Amino acid sequence: MVEINSTRLLDDLAALRQIGGHGTGVVREAFTATDLEGRRWLARRFAEAGLRPVWDPIGNLFGLPPTGRPLVLIGSHSDTQPEGGWLDGSYGVICGLEIARAAQEAGRPGIAVVSFADEEGTFEPLLGSRVWSGELPFSAILDRTDRNGRRLRDILAGMPELITAEQVSPQLFKAYIEAHIEQGLVLDDADEAIGVVETIVGMQHVEVAVIGDQNHAGTTPMNRRHDAVMGFVAFAHAVDEAFRSEAGPSTVWTFGRVTVSPNATSIVPGRTDAMLQIRDPEQARLNHLAARAVSIAENISAKGAVQIRTQVTAKLPPAPLDATLVSTLASAAERLSPGLWRRMVSGALHDAVPVSRIMPSAMLFVPSIAGRSHCFEEDTRPGDLVQGCTVLGAAVESLLLLSP
Ligand SMILES: [Zn+2]
Questions:
Q1: How is the cofactor bound (predicted)?
Q2: Would you call 60 exposed, middle or buried from its count of C-beta atoms within 10 A (0-12, 13-18, 19+)?
Q3: Are 377 and 255 members of one domain?
Q4: What is the 119 CA–ligand 1 centroid distance (Å)?
């Protein structure tokens, strides 16, 4: 029986929280001294738990069981946003560590743990998991710099651990499971303890350029203007109205990176650029909504006040998680938290996205109090942290029993 030690779980979470601790939050950006201190602490904890700490060339840290073929890889990331919470990522890594320990104590050493490098995008979002899963070529990102101008190549060259870095073949693992805080309101609003993620949303970006006529703001009458900001506002409003009636239950859309040129009050603006991001768990709906935005732009352009150019750029397909793993998690949740769990969609991206393209993967969520995350207020009740790990441990135990 894989028996989770709740004190050990909460103590390890509290200890990791101290590294880069900032009030109630944590500042541990990828590849900074505090991030490396945190991951060196993890490496020691892995070793104390009888797991061999292995760093791969991009700086992912694995804890591999000494003997036998690892069966299930459990983990997440331990870096944070520039202002982060104490559980985002760390929860999944420490859950993996606790389940690996508990499984060994139960005589079933088939669990490996991972802390993926730079999930939060200091150099590139999901950097470590995307390189490990082969989606992002190692050589392609070495000359990236962070916002302080540090080059990834130099940072990796300065890490003594990486002198003995080893490739860790994904073939070692039959499955990847990531526990994570929900970072949203669904579970907390419903007073539920567990979310079993069925799909991680896909994403499309529509680049928008609204072209008007730059002119004097004092002398150009209102009925003779071709104002790129007013054109953008009309477009954004029409998109919002259309999407509200055509969206699915999990669709979200956001306008960002809005720039106005020239950005002055005495000039009728000649150009507005923006980016529309759409997220949804279904590819067909993503395609439909992106096409809808393009046709709205064409309709507005046809009226002649402004011209709106669009281009559908980033297309990230949704990541459906493995049906067998999902139902294993679901039955453990129903057994241990009857009536207090649900199947759900993840609107946030996680390391499980790239990993799910190369092996069966699953995710389990615990509630975030008031849905807060990527801020110092981020928190989860201790009982929920323990319950999530217990449910995941029970699910992993049935997987281990299935394939000895
Ligand atoms: Zn995270």
A1: Binds 2 Zn(2+) ions per subunit.
A2: buried
A3: no
A4: 7
CB 77 within 8 A of CB 121: no
Q: Is the pLDDT of residue 274 over 70?
A: yes
Sign of the CA dihedral 87, 92, 97, 98?
positive
The rounded percent of the chain whose pLDDT value lies above 90 is: 93
CA of 70 relative to ligand 1 center, distance in Å: 24
In degrees rounded to 5, what are phi and psi of residue 26? Answer: -140, 140
How many domains does the chain contain in total?
2
CB 345 within 8 A of CB 247: no
Q: Which domain holds residue 307?
A: 202-316
Whether 1 is in a domain gets the answer no
Q: Is 374 annotated as a binding residue?
A: yes
pLDDT in tens, 60-96: 999 999 866 768 999 999 999 999 999 999 999 999 9
Give the 3-state DSSP-derived string for 40-65, with helices as H, strands as E and coil as C: HHHHHHHHHCCCEEEECCCCCEEEEC
| Å from CA of 126 to ligand 1 middle | 9
Residue type for 189, please? Answer: D
d(CA 185, CA 370): 6
What distance in angstroms lies between residue 350's CA and the mean position of ligand 1's atoms? 6
Question: Which of 323, 317, 251, 315 has the alpha carbon at shortest distance from 283?
Answer: 317
Looking at the structure, tell me whether residues 140 and 24 fall in a common domain. yes
Neighbours of ion ligand 1 (CB under 5 A): 88-89
Judge whether 189 is annotated as a binding position. no
Same domain, 172 and 207: no
* Residue range 220-234: mean pLDDT, rounded: 97
Answer yes or no: are the C-beta atoms of 200 and 319 closer than 8 Å.
yes
Residue 338 to residues 1, 191, 335, 387, Cα–Cα distance (Å): 20, 13, 6, 12
111-116/72-77 β-pairing: parallel
User: What's the 182 CA to ligand 1 centre distance in angstroms?
Assistant: 9
Does residue 147 register a pLDDT over 90?
no
Would you state the pLDDT for residue 47?
A: 97
Ligand 1 centroid to residue 255 C-alpha, Å:
23
Is there a binding annotation on residue 237?
no
CATH number at residue 221: 3.30.70.360
Do 282 and 206 share a domain, yes or no? Answer: yes
